[in-house]
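SAMPLE LOG
Freezer: B-3
Tube label: C17
Construct: single chain, 294 aa
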Amino acid sequence: MVKSKALLGALLMSAPLSTFATQVPWFESNSPLTQAHKHLLNDDLPGMFSSLVEVWQLEKNQSIVPHLNDLFLQSLEVDCGKSLDNRSLPDWITSVVVRRTEIQSPGRDSYRALVEVDSPVAIKDIALTRWVSKIVSTDNTLTVVENTDDRKSTRYIKRYNLNSRVKMGLYRIDVTATDETSWSSWLVLGEPKAEISIRWNAKAQWKVEKNALLNRHCPLPKLETALYDYVDGNYVQVWGESHDSDYPSSLDTIPIEPGRYVLAVSMNHQRWQGPIIVEQSQIISKTYDVSVEE
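STRUCTURE (predicted):
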């Protein structure tokens, strides 16, 4: 409650009142944006999220987009998004993960959006669209990861290769089973503000930079390191480890055959939107030579 009121005051002070009077009329009328503020101030996160979806559907004024982003990020300070949607997944869907990925390689950056669905039934298709009915990317594939453990569900991954970062805004997730049973959900994506980022510091060393205080309600950002070998035209992971604290900044001696590999280091932030897990992943990669001495 205190944080929400503090945000309200900060937003009012960030621009002249005349600007808000002409561009952000949320305090003058009973609009969906007004309702979003009221719900947030009353700790009604499902109501706030529902109103925010309506604002994205109706709003044409791009000048309030940063305001919507601040409002959404403020709602995550309560419980990292767990209460934004109080509906459960259907019994034929075990989990849903949406991941935005930025890959920084020497000479180029690439971007991806992925939707991972675990389900005990056969899935026909997964779709991620931006309001209104905008295709995220025509360069997309749906892959199936068969069970390799005791999981009773199969993982289906829809991957979109992008030319730029995934934009903030309102999205729709649609999952369709082979028997035509379907499930869908609205998804609000804000402008990511990574509390921790990574960059190369030397040949095989990286620097972990803390940019802001962590949200104590969210899982700790996870740093993952992995080595990939190029086998039969594909990159195959041959080693990896994960850390959610005491982040390393270089590789220790690892048991691997001498040769040339690709070293990938990623920093992953995670939140929720009700039952949906939403991740933001930054990956830096470069070639890595393992000599006989190592």
